[in-house]
Amino acid sequence: xxxxxxxxxxxxxxxxxxxxxxxxxxxxxxxxxxxxxxxxxxxxxxxxxxxxxxxxxxxxxxxxxxxxxxxxxxxxxxxxxxxxxxxxxxxxxxxxxxxxxxxxxxxxxxxxxxxxxxxxxxxxxxxxxxxxxxxxxxxxxxxxxxxxxxxxxxxxxxxxxxxxxxxxxxxxxxxxxxxxxxxxxxxxxxxxxxxxxxxxxxxx
Length: 204
Hints:
Elements (H helix, E strand, L loop, with lengths): L3 H41 L3 H13 L3 H13 L7 H13 L3 H13 L7 H13 L3 H13 L7 H14 L13 H16 L6
Helix pairs in contact: 1-2, 2-3, 3-4, 4-5, 5-6, 6-7, 7-8, 8-9
């Protein structure tokens, strides 16, 4: 039977172990952030091979930003051979973890048929996930899909709704009104955009 002094020693030891774990986790997180910054600096300096080398272990470790950036490098053939299937692989890993830029990029790959068969419905699904996560380019792309009847039925009101949302969240805030809409439809799109934003883009 462990007495009170023994329990106190165990509690003290447990606190020390937890403190070491927290320190290691913090240092690991800082190391990942530093490596990602180093990779971004290398990329900005045009040292693409070095950037890819720095990104790969981070991507393999599960960092969604690194996975997305590595996917972009494979998509554009910078620092690595151009390989659309490899780009899709990295975008998909990050997208499944809810990383909106990767979801949107995966939508682009399905839209353009790069590394996967062209599939507008699948593109819409990924654009929608990214749009619901507040990613402005995907909100705009989703509007385009509704406008042009790609993967979804043509719906100018929903197209305008997503364009309104994108414009409200974009740095420039530039809104493009669809010419096909009546004044009543414009008002409906504005109301839908307001409700969609209030519901944090869910169920739009």
